[in-house]
Amino acid sequence: MKRTALITGASGGIGYELALIHASKGHDLVLVSRNLPKLEQIAAMIRKEHGVKVFVIDIDLSVQGSAAVVAEKLAQEGISVDILVNNAGFGDISLFSECDWDKQQRMINVNILALAHLTRLLLPGMISSKYGRILNVASTAAFQPGPTMSVYFASKAFVLSFSEALHNEVRDFGVSVTALCPGSTESGFHATALGEGKHVKERKLPSSREVAEYGYRAMMKGRTVAIPGLKNAFMATCVRFMPRSLVVSTARWIQENKFR
Ligand SMILES: NC(=O)c1ccc[n+]([C@@H]2O[C@H](COP(=O)([O-])OP(=O)(O)OC[C@H]3O[C@@H](n4cnc5c(N)ncnc54)[C@H](OP(=O)(O)O)[C@@H]3O)[C@@H](O)[C@H]2O)c1
């Protein structure tokens, strides 16, 4: 059945791949990011290759009230959304005492505020039509505190907790909420979080395409939590049985040895 999917952060990385996957399944799209030329270029390519409708919204989700602006634009266009992919997000590596507060605040606004507000605005439509799929992109960072990226890890813990609770609230109404929890993935994420020139030491990271395909399948099955990769799933399980202080110090050691 033809659906309409709204995907935030569709200009690159995991969100871009999710847009291509949705289009290949015949879904119409609403693509959201700050980069209008990039969105228009992607929209033109998708319309040509897949023959679906694509509407683009260029907006900075770190600005308070931006989710309401997105909802207003949808209403003006008469678009109702069946699938919401809250994927836009970014990280920032720094000791908290030395962090760029403005960047941390924008991170909270994108990773938490815009995600929750957009969900609040679009969920009633899904409940009344008795169909909805929501995919919230969290991270393996959601499973433990993360010294040197404390706000980012905490923001993803919010996404995981919020998604699980919401799934429970809406599952009897034909709606499901899935938290996708990838580990390090090939995308623009590390350039934004670490600054240009720094990289993850791991030689081969999973591609954004692999992660997006895994997330799409999990969302369509209505799964609550989806962790791509055996190692990531194992780590997420282990931390539940470890003393909390050991979890935090191990996370710090990993953070300090992960990048070059
Ligand atoms: N890559 C990883 O290692 C990894 C691991 C776990 C979880 N994740 C999560 O996966 C999600 C997607 O990230 P990615 O890896 O695909 O990184 P990416 O390639 O940097 O993509 C991030 C996307 O978010 C959008 N975005 C960022 N700030 C925005 C803002 N203020 N307003 C609107 N859109 C904004 C960007 O669009 P514009 O720049 O065009 O606005 C871009 O499309 C994020 O939530 C991230 O936390 C990533």
Q: What would your notes on this structure say?
A:
- With 260 residues, the protein is α/β, with parallel strands linked by helices.
- The chain has helices spanning 13-24, 36-50, 66-77, 101-129, 150-170, 189-194, 208-221, 230-238, 244-257; strands at residues 4-8, 28-33, 54-58, 83-86, 132-137, 175-180, 225-226.
- α4 (101-129) links the parallel β4 and β5.
- α1 (13-24) crosses α7, α3 runs parallel beside α4 (101-129) and α4 packs parallel to α5 (150-170).
- The longest helix has 29 residues, at 101-129.
- It binds NADP nicotinamide-adenine-dinucleotide phosphate.
Produce a short descriptive summary.
With 260 residues, the chain is an alpha/beta fold.
Give unreliable regions as ranges: none
- Strand/helix succession: EHEHEHEHEHEHHEHH
Ligand species: NADP nicotinamide-adenine-dinucleotide phosphate
Q: Major sheet, described briefly?
A: 7 strands, parallel
Percentage beta strand: 5-15%
Radius of gyration: 18 Å
- Helix content, binned percent: 40-55%
Mean pLDDT metric:
96
Shape: globular
Q: Structural class, please?
A: alpha/beta
- Report the total helices: 9
What would the keywords be for this entry?
single chain; alpha/beta; seven-stranded parallel beta sheet; 7 strands; 13% strand; binds NADP nicotinamide-adenine-dinucleotide phosphate
Topology, element by element:
Layout: E1 4-8, H1 13-24, E2 28-33, H2 36-50, E3 54-58, H3 66-77, E4 83-86, H4 101-129, E5 132-137, H5 150-170, E6 175-180, H6 189-194, H7 208-221, E7 225-226, H8 230-238, H9 244-257
Parallel strand pairs: 1-2, 1-4, 2-3, 4-5, 5-6, 6-7
Bound molecules: NADP nicotinamide-adenine-dinucleotide phosphate (NAP).
NADP nicotinamide-adenine-dinucleotide phosphate binds at residues 9-15, 33-35, 38, 60-62, 87-91, 110, 137, 139, 182, 184-185, 187-189, 192, 208.
